[in-house]
Amino acid sequence: MADRPTIGVLALQGDVREHVHALAKCDADARPVRRPEELDRVDALVVPGGESTTISKLAETFGLLEPIRKRITGGMPVYGSCAGMIMLATEVLDGRPDQQSFDGIEMTVRRNAFGRQVDSFEAPVRISGVPGPAFHAVFIRAPWVERVSDGVEVLGQVTEGPAAGRIVAVRQGNLLATSFHPELTGDLRVHQYFVDLVRST
Prior knowledge:
Blueprint: E1 6-10, H1 16-25, E2 29-33, H2 36-39, E3 44-47, H3 52-61, H4 65-73, E4 78-81, H5 83-88, E5 89-93, E6 105-110, E7 121-125, E8 135-139, E9 144-148, E10 153-157, E11 167-172, E12 175-178, H6 189-200
């Protein structure tokens, strides 16, 4: 893998620009991905926050659902934040009946588990394997992880408040997911963690 990997950001809906900016600061060549031929030209992919049912529909419309699944099966690193976590899950609770995902991480995720937009909140979250203080994590209509398989590593949980103990960061092989939005805080450690993961593959 090159020292400056090419990392795509799925640009169908959501906070694409913020992820591109954060990845570029971590010395990655970041670019939007909207079509299968653009997916073919990247080493890894970020699936941003947004609205998971909309992302699911647009991924089908733009012919990206199966190509992304195939790339994941082939070992492509992928990081999903918030809606991206939902898109990476093998099971989604409280989603639409026709909602599809990329079937990457063997976990059950509950959509909008932390509540509606007005219930958005911020909380400290420590991420295993990432040095430094706890992240100032921003949760916006966020999911949480209810169950994981034996092959999934739990990296972070809410440590205080009514949601204490809820799983909000996981990794399975080359796949990483958080239910919060590190791209909105200026803290680059999650993005740097992912870029380093991509370089190591």
